[in-house]
Design a protein that fits this description.
Elements (H helix, E strand, L loop, with lengths): L18 H6 L7 E5 L4 E5 L11
Length: 56
């Protein structure tokens, strides 16, 4: 997850403003995340959380 001002031009990242990212905030490994849209809902389990230091 990256901030909305950091997402442009990056692959394999999701904006913190995206519904799936908002659903993950505050969750821990092993937690279930449920994302609802106007058309459906989908559940995922958080298997791993990793933080990489920014590349300068």
């Amino acid at each position: 997850m990256v901030g909305s001002d950091e997402i442009y031009g990056k692959r394999n990242y999701v904006s913190v403003n995206a519904p799936v990212a908002r659903a993950c905030l505050g969750k821990c490994e092993g937690d279930e995340v449920l994302v609802r849209t106007s058309e459906s809902s989908k559940a995922w389990e958080i298997e791993h959380i990793r933080y990489d230091l920014p590349q300068l």
